[in-house]
Amino acid sequence: MNTLQKPSARRLIQLLRSQGPVSRLKLADLLDVQPSTVTRIVNQLLDDGLVVEEADPNRAGRRGYPSKLLQLRPMGLLSAGVFIDPERYYTCIVNALGEVLSEETSSITDRGFSQLMELIGASVDRQTRQLGLQPDRFIGCGISYPGQHTSKPGIVRQTQYFSEWPEIDASKDFAPYFDMPVHQLNDAKCACLAELLFGSCRSVRNFNYVWLSHGIGGAAVIDQSLYLGKSASAAEFGGLFPKSQPRPSGSDLLATIKEAGLAADNLEHISKADLQHESILNWVDRVEQQLKWLSLVITRTMSPDAIVLGGRLPDAIFSELIERLSASKSLGEDHFGPHPTFIRAEADKKPHLGAAALPLYLTTSPNAG
Amino acid sequence: MNTLQKPSARRLIQLLRSQGPVSRLKLADLLDVQPSTVTRIVNQLLDDGLVVEEADPNRAGRRGYPSKLLQLRPMGLLSAGVFIDPERYYTCIVNALGEVLSEETSSITDRGFSQLMELIGASVDRQTRQLGLQPDRFIGCGISYPGQHTSKPGIVRQTQYFSEWPEIDASKDFAPYFDMPVHQLNDAKCACLAELLFGSCRSVRNFNYVWLSHGIGGAAVIDQSLYLGKSASAAEFGGLFPKSQPRPSGSDLLATIKEAGLAADNLEHISKADLQHESILNWVDRVEQQLKWLSLVITRTMSPDAIVLGGRLPDAIFSELIERLSASKSLGEDHFGPHPTFIRAEADKKPHLGAAALPLYLTTSPNAG
DNA sequence: TTTTTAATTTGCGCTTCGCAATATAATGCT
DNA sequence: AGCATTATATTGCGAAGCGCAAATTAAAAA
Lengths: 369, 369
What we know:
5-stranded mixed beta sheet; 11 helices; about 20% strand; ArsR-like_HTH (chains A, B)
């Protein structure tokens, strides 16, 4: 696996992810190197079992040496992911393509740190064994949960739900419970990585992710690499919507639902009928305006190619918001000209997938790790 | 000058700029390479006349081989700068350290594009000859003026003052008037480059520049490299303050001054007495609030290490604003924890210096050009 | 004068990559 | 079938960059 230390190999892997199966010649063109260079790098990656070759079906019937397409080998890289909710935890094993090989979830009864981590560590271990894999074949375990980072790098502010937790230092506090390297990042930023590696942003250079769950988070990707800023708090869009005011968050939606006397008591239980209720329609109208404003702010600061919306709100709401934002002529006063593209996140349904994306990102992205 | 193509040489030059005179050993440490590598790169740079060696005065009296300090050779790189105002143009010749070797300015009478460019080209030419230099020793000429970039890359939207100008395409329209490569970027982003290369931000990794002149502009530097975003419109902070409303711009200040019946009719003519006038004091109060809000927005999106204030407002106003922003406990509701540092720009007095910084940046920065 | 110390340089070998020549596997032509 | 043509991939060679270890240099200290 030493190959992953080499920047050229990482760049190649990145291209395989974004450009699907490609020939060596195309890769050489995209990387702006000689075909011979690609051959050499690919040979190492083949040796290490990180990529596989297959025949090019579209190439049949044409003249010349038939190109062989290269692809990431699904089992070439394995990663574990852990997402910790206030109420449940989710764990999974994921391959190089972001396919979930196995997952478990359980509600959290005992919120003590070490008790919970014992359970989670055991869950990852169990799935590893059930798949017949060795922990040392894993590139790492990513841990994700709602919360902001403190000014000390790598340390996460205790979330409101886990007030008895210590301030988490990923490298020290999580490590004892896993047989592999452990990394952590908050839910929004992990979700963004899933989008970058497996989802709709595989070939978008610069984008901003707006994460609407119970709370509001976000992430920024610049040049296909996660930009964290000072104290890993870049793109913390939640901070632009004061908690004392109505805001475009899941909690706020649930409060609206409750006020309207509807039944749903959690984001997964909102029915189609609920969405037609007037107070919810009003909620969406308001959130549309708030996101328009946020998009203007993002456009005026980061000026990304795309703004991606994802999170745990009902799918129908996301679709509606994307549609309305895409259709809007202007994002605000004095704004004219083209918007960034608005994109619906594809990989936000399983937050533990985002967590699993983190080790893959750190070890395969050219500018990270 | 072929040395400047090499990334390692560029990285070394960047360090010389930010770390002042340094020994080879220190450079090796900073670059995380072997001292022998530094020796080899430095030898080339010495050959090319880009750096010079000098004795280390602090080293006298101590044992061992005395370290020799390396520095950029001032005349090793030359650049021309042009700033075009609605009313005047400014031209200059600048060396590698950002020292202005020569400058000229003149009011603009004929606003026709080719007439004006003839004059400007002649001005650069004249100064070049008066200094006894050859145009081919120049690394380029930078052109800067107020205005936003259009969606076509490299094309600047015609400014309101030069409505008869075509949409400028730097590489084509400017080139004929100069005997060296020409580059262009708007005033705010050029000013930011001056700050990055010569001013207060030489060793700040990520920062945002807030440019307050007649209008409002801005720029973003990520990892010591200018981030432009889509259509080079990242950090166009002016777009966050609608023109129909009071806003923190020089034009707005001048309007306030006029309304108060004060004499000053341009930003350079504001007197100390004027600044004590109640309406101006109120103006500063309002602008403080607007910049606080902008700083919150910047912090929540880019999360930079520093926010830099510069432009053509009176110095006293900048000092006052920096002081107040630095002292503020919070930038807005729900904001706590540390701010970014607020910094007063050092290199904003001569906008043509910013223009001259552009070719230097493009040819010596590791991630540009 | 010799020793010690610290910064720099030199020699050697490994790795990476571009360039040009070659190999390979398919189709098309006679 | 046999040979030409074509497109893709590979191999061999040489140049460049860099780490490592040994050598060199210029100063102070013994």
